[in-house]
Amino acid sequence: xxxxxxxxxxxxxxxxxxxxxxxxxxxxxxxxxxxxxxxxxxxxxxxxxxxxxxxxxxxxxxxxxxxxxxxxxxxxxxxxxxxxxxxxxxxxxxxxxxxxxxxxxxxxxxxxxxxxxxxxxxxxxxxxxxxxxxxxxxxxxxxxxxxxxxxxxxxxxxxxx
Length: 161
What we know:
With 161 residues, this protein is mainly beta. The chain folds into 2 domains: 15-110, Roll (SH3 type barrels); 113-154, SH3 type barrels. 8% of the residues lie in helices and 39% in strands. The chain has 2 helices and 10 strands, in the order E-E-E-E-E-H-E-H-E-E-E-E. Pfam families: MBT. It comes from Scleropages formosus (Asian bonytongue).
């Protein structure tokens, strides 16, 4: 649920960044700006078909600069063909003939986050978003910025939100 800003943004087609997969919010992926329309950007998962592309506002909390995952201890899902332990942003961008999106474009980095008191490993009861009458035991698996990643205990990761 994003507001609709009226200004343009500084992202350009071909810029590389990291971001959350909107269908699998436990996965941070390598993304490329595929299109810019006003304040919106269409993001492409590197190594995957265009049918998985998605749109976000340029100030979305879901997009991060290259290297953010490594710096903050989150696993980055690499593009097909890249090997774990061998991925390096500068080499990757050079091989792709792309460019890394500059950090100043990421508005969420300049926003202070109020500590919530929630920590990974805490247990709670959570509502299944696809079946709201179902309330289940869950675990906080990550706290990123001002949001929590919830995992339903004994369920597949695809249900995380």
